[in-house]
Specification:
Blueprint (H helix, E strand, L loop, with lengths): L5 E5 L7 H9 L2 H6 L1 E5 L2 H11 L4 E5 L11 E5 L16 H19 L5 E4 L4 H6 L7 H9 L5 E6 L11 E5 L9 H4 L2 H18 L14 E5 L14 H15 L3 E6 L1 H9 L5 E4 L2 H12 L4 E5 L5 E4 L16 H18 L16
Length: 366
């Protein structure tokens, strides 16, 4: 593919499965067809993953993205972070691992913000290790929002179509609230946040198109279903009135601004309808409402995409899997899917696509 986008893949927490899923994905020819990848983190940790998997690839330390010459046999790695990360034991929760993940992410984000790379793909970090290192962020999404200086961002899980099978051309789920207690969710919801999430996911689903990484934007307007908060969509107020007082007005406002949107709909049946192709995107009110259903549909194909940033960022949709790390058995399909999505979005950015989130007044006066 001519003029392939350059993507930085951050190493994540060195105690987890990040290093090995990167090396495993690196061996897949499709990764190199889609982009020019480089790794950001400690090169020696990548070498350990290469040895673990018995790969014949060579890790080449570089000092800038311009020096990267990636291939299935060559892994360029831009060193980032303190060498103390080399002492982190596999499958452990260690502040040094949290710091290593943070340092790699900051280095890659700055490269993207400076226009030196086209986008980034992140391997998982461990939230407890991140906090132990002194960084008070719930996860990648919130940390990246701070680094990029944005106030309105959201986490989207994206399930691309399964290769070789029919069905809908991808499904996206965006979360109005994310890393917070279930008890706090109703108080954190607002009409504006629901409308913002609907606009964010409508925009990005148009660009992802057929989900192959080589496709074109979809031709129909994104069809969005909005989850109710309460069982049975509240049963006309019997089980809670958030549907009537908050979610329905937000849906009406989003529809009036030009979106193809329905809701609030009971979450259990909405996800079935979305799976069957009636909707392209779902707005979930809280973390597990969206995560559980989508991961049941395709845990290892799912991709985490941060919406609302001025840079492209995707990730695997799973965590560090400390119970399975450094055993040579980690599944790399999610990393490959994350590379596909990042490559698609990066090429769209190169072609002139400006995310709606970067336009003044989106959601209110789009």
């Amino acid at each position: 593919m001519p003029d392939k986008p350059q993507l930085a893949i951050t190493l994540g927490d060195p105690a987890g499965i990040g290093p090995e899923i990167i090396v495993a994905a690196w061996a897949d020819p499709v990764v190199h067809e889609l982009c020019r990848p480089l790794v950001v983190g400690q090169p020696e940790i990548v070498r350990r993953a290469v040895a673990l998997l018995g790969s014949s690839a060579t890790v080449v330390e570089i000092s800038s993205p311009d020096e990267a010459r990636p291939s299935e046999k060559s892994i360029p790695c831009l060193s980032a972070g303190d060498p103390s990360a080399l002492d982190v034991a596999p499958r452990s929760i260690d502040a040094r691992g949290g710091r290593a993940a943070y340092d790699a992410l900051v280095a890659a984000a700055r490269l993207a913000l400076d226009g030196k790379i086209d986008g980034l793909v992140t391997a998982p970090l461990h939230k407890e290790a991140l906090h132990a290192a002194g960084y008070d962020y719930p996860g990648h999404t919130e940390l990246l929002a701070t680094l990029c200086g944005v106030e309105r961002s959201a986490m989207m899980l994206y399930l691309p179509p399964e290769p070789g099978r029919g069905g809908p051309a991808g499904l996206g789920v965006v979360h109005v609230t994310l890393h917070t207690s279930l008890r706090s969710v109703p108080d954190l919801l607002s009409e504006g946040a629901i409308v913002d999430c609907a606009w964010l996911i409508s925009d990005v689903m148009q660009v992802l198109g057929d989900g192959t990484g080589f496709g074109t934007p979809r031709t129909h307007q994104t069809r969005i279903g909005v989850c109710a908060l309460n069982p049975h969509a509240g049963e006309a107020g019997l089980f809670g009135d958030e549907e009537q007082t908050l979610i329905a007005p937000a849906v009406a406002r989003a529809r009036a601004s030009g979106l193809f949107i329905e809701g609030p709909l009971p979450a259990d049946t909405l996800m079935v309808r979305a799976r069957d192709g009636e909707f392209d995107a779902v707005v979930a009110m809280y973390h597990d409402q969206g995560h559980i259903a989508l991961k049941l549909l395709g845990m290892h194909r799912a991709v985490n995409i941060t919406l609302g940033l001025p840079i492209v960022r995707t990730s695997v949709a799973h965590g560090t899997a400390l119970d399975r790390a450094w055993l040579g058995t980690a599944e790399s399909a999610g990393m490959i899917a994350a590379v596909r999505a990042a490559a698609t979005l990066s090429r769209a950015r190169r072609a002139g696509w400006v995310p709606v989130s970067l336009l003044a007044g989106y959601g209110e006066n789009p």
